[in-house]
Amino acid sequence: MTGLQKKLKFAITRNHILAILGGLVSFFVMVSAAFFLWVMTGPRSINSFTPYIESALSSPENGYKVKIENSEIEWNEWHNPFGMSARNVEIINNKGTVIAYFPEVLVKIYLYKLLLGKIDIKSLAFISPNAMLIQNDDGSIALGLNNTDGGTNSSIPAILALLTSESSDNPVRHLKLLLIRHATLSIQNKIAGIFLRSSDTSVEITKKHGRIKGSFTVPLMFDNKTSSLSGNFSADKKSDMVTAQIIYKDIATSALHALFPTQEWLKGIHLSVSGAVRIFSNFAADISATDFTLESGQGSIEYPSVLSEPINLQNLEMAGSVTDQMNTLNIASAKASLIGNDSKTINMSLNATIKKTGNDYAIEGHGETANIPVNDVHRYWPLTLSPHSRAWVTTHISNGIITKADVDLHFKPGEIKFKDTPENAIASTIVVKNTDIKYLPKHLPVTDVNAVIKFTGITISRHLSEVFSKRAGSQ
Q1: Nearest-angstrom CA–CA distance, 55 and 52
Q2: CA–CA separation, 33 vs 37, rounded Å?
Q3: What are the E-state strand segments in 7-51?
Q4: Strand 177-189 relative to strand 121-127: parallel, antiparallel, unpaired?
């Protein structure tokens, strides 16, 4: 073959290849144009892709699978052209029980990956979903994805891990927006069944550069009483930091005890509380600190082992924080207005620091009160606080008014458990007016006494002034 023949053959081959490539490009352009036209005049059914979508969203190892009745693709807008809607979506646990139902799910996806059989979601919107949450025996809350009797890995750490995971097989790796609108939620446990409901929950979460921001509104119904939670949160994977602010309104303490059944101290508080909480934690949901405000209207506190009678409250205000990896409670201020037996208001205030050390607690605090009828002091003086001094005051003093009282608390770790209060753990001063004091059983009382009584954990001293005895008629 001559050189001219070789050049001619090469030119023909090259021309053939270019022609074939040109034809392929033209065909691809025509197909793409037809596809775009097909989608733009939709929505169009993509039920043939539904098994791929179901498989990508299901997680049998975590106890659930996804079932989609119908799915469509549609044109949304030029800058983000493709959206997918799925209707009648069910989440089914391994027992075959539907534990979440979504009438409509709107998804924006990367179409070219869908054509390759992969799900890569840019945004998700759940419209009017219905979900059942399960309270496990330890009080934790999870979506009802149960293999046995409890929920599985649908906790906050698991959700944060999913939203921030960079794994190539994570379908929400590139998720920018998550919306939940008009959700119906219910929480149930083995004992009470369904005990808490929300009929119009809304959540919005955005993600950018590994940082998550969100807001939520959760109306609640407990025991036929309405309340609400709302707030916002942010999570930064690089710093392993999660912060949240929660505003709560009219939350019954009985609802809190139902949500946190291991916190037995909540059983004795009968209030409806409102306020705000800021929470600081890591991605594993290990809370490092919080600060809070709290207020309530009328209610009662009842602890038979500590208080001889229930205390009726007119209102309560409190502000403080929990620090040191949730081991130290700082009560910056606490003010309570109590309803006395004569229906008059009694004001009390307290600031304190309670620190947990191992299984013991240390307490440093200062409290004040005024205008307590002497005959009612037994109602407000805790049974376990300096019991010897309490016994003397409540059995030897009667009538009159405590015009002022204050107490300083200095309990070292473990001392609060002692049967006898250590002497230096308490220092208190009580100022009484027009009271009667009976020193000895066989002696008549000294009446109409103005006195200052001081006591510690062990000792008690009395200083009398302006003594007027009705019996003796002299000063």
Answers
A1: 5
A2: 6
A3: 44-45
A4: parallel
Q: Taking residues 116-140, report their average pLDDT.
A: 75
The rounded distance, in Å, linking the Cα atoms of 274 and 297 is 9
Going by C-alpha positions, the residue among 365, 373, 330 that lies closest to residue 349 is 365
* Closest among 349, 352, 347 to 365, alpha carbons compared: 352
CA distance 141 to 260: 10
Q: pTM of the full predicted structure?
A: 0.76
Structure tokens at 395: 């059995």
The CA-atom distances, in angstroms, between 147 and each of 318, 329, 409 are: 43, 38, 50
DSSP-assigned letters across all residues of 152-190: -S-SHHHHHHHHH---TT-TTTT--EEEEEEEEEEEEET
Give the per-residue pLDDT at 157.
58
What's the rounded Cα separation, in Å, for the pair 21 and 144?
Answer: 54
For the chain, the straight-line distance linking the first and the last C-alpha, in angstroms and rounded, comes to 145
User: For residues 422 and 386, what is the distance between their CA atoms, to the nearest angstrom?
Assistant: 8
For the chain, the average pLDDT equals: 78
pLDDT at position 369 over 90: yes
Secondary structure (DSSP) of 15-45? HHHHHHHHHHHHHHHHHHHHHHHHHHT--EE
Q: How many CB atoms lie within 10 A of CB 178?
A: 20
| Omega prior to 43 cis, within 30 of 0 | yes
**Which token pair is 4?**
């001219």
Residues β-bridged to residue 141: 135
Residues 245-294: tens digit of each pLDDT: 999 999 999 888 888 887 888 889 999 999 999 999 887 778 888 999 99
pLDDT (tens digit per residue) in 170-216:
666 777 888 888 988 888 777 777 778 888 899 999 988 778 899 99
